[in-house]
Model the fold of this input.
Amino acid sequence: MKAIAPVTAKTLVYYAFALTVLVFAFVLREPAFFSVENLLNIVRQTAPIVIMAIGLNFALSAGLLDLSMGAVVALTGLVAATLLPHYDVAIAVLASLTLGALIGALNGYLTVRLAIPSLIVTLGSLMFLSGLVRQTFGLASTPILNHSFLVLFGSGSLLGVPTLLWWVVGIALSVFCVFNSLQLGRHLLASGANISVANAVGINTDKIRIMAMSLSGLCAALAGLLYAGRMQSARYTMGESELMTVIAAVAIGGSSIFGGQVNIWGTVLGVWLIGMLNNGLILAGLSSNAQWMAKGLILIGAVGITVKARKQ
Amino acid sequence: MIRTALDQVALKVVNLHKHFSASAVLQGVDFTANRGEVIALLGENGAGKSTLVNCIAGKLQPTQGQIQIQGDTQLIASPSDAQAAGIAVVYQDLALINTLTVVENLFLNNEIKHRNVILNRLGWLDKAAMLKRGSKLLQRLTSVTLDLHAAVSSLSVGEQQIVALIRAVNVGADIIVMDEPTAALGNEQCNHVTDLIRLLSSQGVTILLVSHNLVQVKALCDRAVVLFQGQSVADVSVSDYTEVELLSFMNGVTPDVDSVTVAS
Done:
C-alpha cells in the first residue's frame, strides 16, 4: 500500500484525473473520446484557460484573488486584434502584454494602498473593464488575418505539436520554476501564508503583492492572445465565462484559495480535467445545463476533500 | 570569555517615549544590554513591554528617545532596518511560516542564490548550499534532531522556537528579542530552548527575554529590567533578588532590601 500516495490536497487532482479517464473509458464507450485528434482538441480549447488558471496562482500565492482576469482577456485580445492590421506583430503583442501587466499592477496597488480586499478591487475592475470593452470595441468580433500571429498563438504547430500546447507547457514550466526555485516564489508564498511573519522578516509584502497581481494580469493578457489566435478574431465575450472554470480548476488542482500554497501541474491537470468532462459529457449526449451541474458537484466534492485533507 | 565580552555595549535604550493619540504607553525607558548578556524584560500586562519590543523591532516609531546599537544611534524605521542593525525578534506565535519547510524558514529573505551570474540576477536559489549550511547550523547549536525538509507546521512548539532562534542567528542577528519564548512549552522542550539561549549567549549574542516565568528568569537571565506604567523602574542583577522581590518591582514597589539599585 505504501507505493500509493494518500489522497491529499496535493495528490487529489491526479486521482480525479485518472478516475475521469477510467470512467470515460468504461462508461462512455466512445472511441472518439480517446482519439489523438479529440485529445489535442481539448488541449487547444483549454489552452487560454490553463494560462489564466496558472496566472491566478500568482494572485492566490500571495493571498489575493483576481476576478478581473475575465475582462482583461477580452480587452487584451481586442487590443491586439485592433493593432494587428496597422502595426508589427511584435508591437501588438507587446502592447497587449504590457496592458495586462499594468492593469494587474493597478489592481495590486489599489489592494495594497487602499487596503480594500482584492476580491472587491478586482470585482470592480472586472465590471469597469467589461463596460469599457463593450463601449470601445462594440459587440461585433474583430477578425485577425495576420498570418504570423495566427501561427504563433493559434493554429500553428512545431515538431508536430500544436503551438498552443507549447505555450501551456512552456508557461507551466516557467511558473513552476518561479515557485520552486526563485526567491520571488518563496516571498510570494510567505506573504500569502502569513503576511505578519513575512513583514517581520523584512519582506516588502506591498511590493510582492503588487507584483503578484501584475503577473496575474500578464498571464490574463497572454490568455487573451491565445484566445484571439485560436478563434482568429477577438470579441468582448472572450474569457468572460471562463472565470468560474478557472477558479474551479485551481481549487481542484490543489492550490489553496486562502493563499500560501500553489500547485502548478495540478492546476494544468485541473483545467484539463474540466475540459475532458465538458468534452466527454457532450459526447455522452448531456446538455450544457447538465454539464454545469456536474462541474458544480465535482468542484464542491473536490474542494471538500482538499480542505479535509489539509486539516489532518 | 564571557567576562571580556560583557564589556561591550550591544543595545542601549535612552529615555524612550511612545505616545499613542490619547495615552502615553512608554514614558521614559532606559537600559543597557551588553554583548552576550541575557536580560529579562519584566512587567505586568500593560506595562509597555510589547510597545518597547515593537519599537526595537522597527514596527513602531518612538515618539522621543533613542535606540543605540553597538554605540551608534540608529533610526529603526522598519523591520528590515532592525534586521540590518543585527536585531531579530522571535515573537511568541508569529515567528515562522507554517507552510514552508524548516530550511526555507531558516533562510527566508536571506536566501543563498545561485553562483551563476544570470541565475543569481533572476533570484535562482542555491538549495544545496542552504541545506548544507542549515544542517551545519543545527548540528552546531542544538542537540534536537530536525528534518530540514519538514514543514514547520509538523513540528512541536519547542522545535519551532528552536528553528526561529536559529533563523535569527542565521540572518546575522547579534541581538535577539524573545517574546514569551517558553510559555507554551513542556519541560523537556523548554530545556532544549534554554540550552540554546545559553549557548548563544556564550557566543556573544545578546538576548532580551520577555517573560512572566520568574523561575526561568532566575535560572537563565543575568539581569532584569522592570517596566511599570511605561517607565523602567528597576535594572537589577537577577541573582540579588528572590522571585517575590522581582514580583514586587513589577507591581511598582521597591522591595525592602539594603542593596537595592533602582534606576531613574
Q: What stands out?
A: The CA atoms of residues 97 and 120 of chain B lie 24 Å apart. The interface with chain A takes residues 57, 59, 78-80, 83, 89, 91, 94-100, 104, 108-111, 113, 122-125, 127, 171 of chain B (CB under 8 Å).
